[in-house]
Write a structure and sequence with these properties.
Alpha/beta knot; Trp Operon Repressor, Chain A; 9 helices; three-stranded mixed sheet; binds adenine
């Protein structure tokens, strides 16, 4: 995959892609990441990238011409991608909410171009005639699209086949399974008087798998009942939740509503 990022602050991208899993993925040519300074494509004498909004109002708006020029220059580099395997994404709080399923979809693409917005916004023609998608990383406003672009690239790259050492761990983890992750422990078995649950030391792999599933169900029911409405649950899962939450509680959880346990001994 080739990722191009258009930004007014290319220095911000030093660091996050130079460590750990993303660095290894780049070294192994599973992804290449190219950061372009939009200002380099502002061709007037002062290299202006923003201007006052037509119609008045507070703040400045990013001009369309440097963004289009930067995007066209970036797309002319490297291998072209088939239309259904590429995306031009504007990072904006007005975008559709970023989610694991979007990361998984984008990980199958061969080219991504991310545009980092700034100031009060970006000229509407960028949305209408350049971007193929708009993504928000959450309902809060950041100073620009750079951190959101880093979030999206990180979430996407780790889903490219071969990037993670252990493919099972990605499939098992939180959200991909529709549930939050079960609690994890490592050595020492006792730390400051706090012990690892007996079950995990039992060596009984079937029982451990069941315990982990139940812990994931309890954690999701407690913290994110909204996820349970869409999670693929087995009959055993439903029976377990009915034992802990009672039949009414189970019905609430399956509708994505919070519920109160009727017994606590399963925790
Ligand atoms: N730019 C500023 N805030 C943002 C957000 N929450 N998501 C995406 N881009 C942004």
């Amino acid at each position: 995959m080739r990722v191009d990022i258009l930004t007014l602050f290319p220095e911000m991208f030093r660091g996050p892609f130079d460590e750990s899993i993303i660095r290894r993925a780049r070294e192994r040519d599973l992804v290449s990441i190219h950061v372009h300074n939009i200002r380099d494509y502002a061709l007037d004498r002062h290299r202006v990238t923003d201007d006052y909004p037509y119609g008045g109002g507070p703040g400045m708006v990013m001009k369309p011409d440097p963004i289009f020029a930067a995007a066209e220059a970036a797309l002319a580099q490297g291998e072209p991608a088939p239309p259904d395997r590429r995306a031009i994404i504007l990072m904006t709080p007005q975008g559709r909410p970023f989610h694991q399923h979007i990361a998984d979809e984008l990980a199958t693409y061969t080219r991504l171009l991310l545009i980092c917005g700034h100031y009060e916004g970006v000229d509407e023609r960028v949305r209408e005639h350049l971007a193929t998608d708009e993504l928000s990383i959450g309902d809060y406003v950041l100073t620009g699209g750079e951190l959101p672009a880093m979030v999206v690239v990180d979430a996407v790259v780790r889903r490219i086949p071969g990037v993670l050492g252990c493919p099972a761990s990605a499939a098992e983890e939180s959200i991909t399974s529709g549930l939050l992750e079960y609690p994890q422990y490592t050595r020492p078995a006792e730390f400051r008087g706090w012990s690892v649950p007996e079950m995990l030391l039992s060596g009984n792999h079937g029982a451990i798998a069941r315990w982990r599933r139940e812990q994931a169900l309890l954690r999701t029911a407690q913290r994110r009942p909204d996820l349970l409405a869409c999670a693929p649950l087995t009959n055993a899962d439903r029976a377990f939740l009915a034992r802990v939450y009672g039949p009414d509680g189970l019905a609430r959880l399956l509708a994505g509503q919070p519920a109160t346990p009727v017994r606590r001994d399963e925790d």
